[in-house]
Structures are given as C-alpha cells and as structure tokens.
Write a structure and sequence with these properties.
Blueprint (H helix, E strand, L loop, with lengths): L3 H14 L13 H15 L11 E6 L5 H12 L3 E4 L13 H8 L5 E5 L3 H10 L4 E3 L7 H15 L6 E5 L4 H12 L3 E5 L8 H12 L5 E4 L2 H5 L4 E4 L11 H7 L7 H4 L7 E4 L11 H4 L6 H20 L3
Parallel strand pairs: 1-2, 1-3, 3-4, 5-6, 5-8, 6-7, 8-9
Helix pairs in contact: 1-2, 2-6, 2-13, 3-13, 4-5, 6-7, 6-13, 7-8
Length: about 325
C-alpha cells in the first residue's frame, strides 16, 4: 500500500504522461492512467482541484447526433477557461469530403485538440495520424471511451473501490460494450456481456480485454443467457439495440433481442446493492423497462453528469491543463 503522498505523486506522473496524447480507444490508457483520470475527475467534481485550459480551443467534429457528449465537452472546456469551436460538417468543408489528411493538418494550426464522433474507427485513427494535436474519440462504431470513464466514475462513487466488482452489460455487443470491457479490464472490474447469439462483441476486443483483465486478476466473459449474465452483479448496464447507423435493422433487432429487456425480474437476480446504468438515450420498454430506469437502483442521471467531470479531467490531461 502506497502512502497518500506517494499515491498522489504517482497519479500526477500518470496524468503528465498523457499530455499531447490521443484517446481513440479505452485501451490507449494504462491501468494507472485510467485510475488517475478517475481520481482527477472525482477531485474536480468535489471542487478539490482547479484545472486550467485558458486560451485553449477544442474543435468538435460530429458526424452523428449527440446531446450529452457535445454539451459536456462544451461545458467542460468552458469550466476550464477554454472554448469550443463546433466544426459542424454541414457548414464546414468536412461534409464536402475534404481529405482527412488536409483537414487534420489545417485544424492543427488553429485548435489545441479535436473531439470527433464518426462512424469508422479508421477515421479517428486517420485524424490522429495527421493531426499534431490530441484527438479524442467522442464515439465511433467501435468504441466510446469517454463514456466508459464516466461509467466507472459512477461505479466508483457508489462502491468506493473498483477492483473485484462485477459489471454486467446486457444487450448489443456494441461500441459502448467494447469500451466498458476494455476500461473495466484496466480497472480490475469483472465484466460480463450478456447478448443473444449473433450480437456478441468484437472478438479481437474480447481477447484484448481478457488479457488486460487477467493481468489485474479480473475476468471478461460473454454469455448468452441474460439471467446468468446478471447474477450477483454490482452494476447492470444496457444500451440501445440498434446504434446510430443501424436504423434499418431496428425491427429485426427488436425481434432478436426479445427477452433481453433490463427489467425488474433481471434486476432481482443482481446483488441487492446493484446499480443500473445506461449511457442514454434510452428506449423505455425495449432495452430497459420504465420501472428500472426510473427506479431506486438507477444512477443514469449521475452517470450522465459524470461525463462532464470525467471529460474535464481528460481534457486537462491531454491538453496540458494539469
Ligand atoms: N451517451 C452519449 O454519448 O450520448 P449522446 O449521444 O447524447 O452524446
Ligand atoms: N450505441 C449507441 C450509443 C449512443 C450514445 C450508438 O452508437 O448509437
């Protein structure tokens, strides 16, 4: 066990290492860096530290809709004394198809960081390759690493220590599930993904998460039985069955996911102290029942608020405000 001052020195060192770096995947961070970001986010939330990004500008390039991510990044930059510029694809040349190589190099002359929401993970990787400023994945089809930071901050607030807890995600093995698996593995949380056959998370991500988890004494499992997936878990998590870009599959997915609603019966199988999480937006009556999302176990609005605190910590670390 480290002393409090040795712990805070190692937290500070982890945060300094992140200066100038990208966050494209939850696995871009080490266990120590992830824990340090959560510690900083918690301190920011409690008003124990003041971070400063005055004079810094974050560019937002969002090719998909967003409420929480867009607003929390904007407010986070404002609270840190910086500003955001919305590079709306419909009014910039981004939507016209200017090459990423050109856009990224030009924008790097103007802004101090880019938060990008798009479809292919390869696009954020391309931006990161060409940009000389940090690039943050604000959601792709593959991952949602900023969401996972807020999610584990929420779990940490409720249970104190993360290692040894079990988080069960039920539903589609999607971007949110992928980042929860990787980030949870780094934090020593056991992650179970329960999904119908055919909707499992990406195999490469599963293997990566399993190997990261093993080095922290944790496990990552994929199960095809909802009750087995949630039994005894400390957090139950779900997300939409059809993500942005999968609108045409909405109806076939609703049939495939019958029996996978996170409802009161499923919640009764979890640990009695279990909390319920959802990244939002949610469809009540599909992936989650109205009673569960509005019930006493639900922490979904604390979780949404934590996007703001986690991203202040992240921005300060990457853009040099710690
Ligand atoms: N959870 C999340 O990323 O929400 P938005 O799509 O509203 O940003
Ligand atoms: N999986 C969802 C998350 C939305 C925040 C999607 O990609 O649409």
């Amino acid at each position: 066990m480290q002393s409090a001052s040795a712990q805070s020195a190692s937290t500070a060192a982890c945060l300094t290492e992140l200066r100038g770096r990208d966050l494209l995947s939850s696995a871009d961070l080490s266990s120590e860096q992830t824990s340090a970001l959560l510690a900083l986010a918690s301190a920011v939330k409690q008003g124990q530290v003041r971070l400063d990004l005055s004079g810094k500008v974050l560019g937002l390039i969002f090719l998909k809709a967003s409420t929480r991510t867009r607003v929390s990044f904007s407010v986070a930059m404002g609270r840190l004394g910086g500003q955001v510029i919305d590079l709306d694809p419909s009014v910039t040349q981004v939507g016209r198809g200017e090459p990423i190589a050109d856009t990224a190099r030009v924008l790097s002359r103007f802004v101090d960081g880019l938060a990008i929401r798009t479809f292919a993970q390869a696009e954020v990787e391309d931006y990161a390759h060409w940009a000389s400023v940090p690039v943050i994945n604000a959601l792709t089809d593959l991952e949602h690493p900023c969401q996972a930071l807020a999610d584990y901050l929420t779990l940490q607030e409720v249970f104190g220590e993360l290692p040894g807890l079990t988080l069960s995600y039920v539903g589609d093995g999607n971007n949110v599930a992928h980042s929860l698996m990787l980030c949870g593995a780094l934090l020593g949380v056991n992650v179970r993904v329960g999904c119908p056959p055919g909707f499992a998370p990406d195999d490469g991500i599963c293997k990566r998460a399993q190997s990261l988890a093993a080095s922290r004494g944790a496990t990552v499992e994929v199960l095809h039985d909802p009750v087995a997936a949630v039994r005894g878990a400390h957090a139950l998590y779900t997300d939409v069955w059809a993500s942005m870009g999968q609108e045409e599959e909405k109806e076939t997915r609703q049939q495939a996911f019958a029996g996978w609603c996170l409802n009161e019966d499923l919640l009764a199988e979890a640990d009695p102290r279990a909390i319920v999480l959802h990244c939002l937006p949610a469809y009540r009556g599909l992936e989650i029942s109205a009673g569960v999302i509005e019930g006493s176990a639900s922490r979904v609005f604390d979780q949404a608020e934590n996007r703001l605190h986690a991203q202040q910590a992240l921005l300060a670390a990457l853009l040099g405000g710690v």
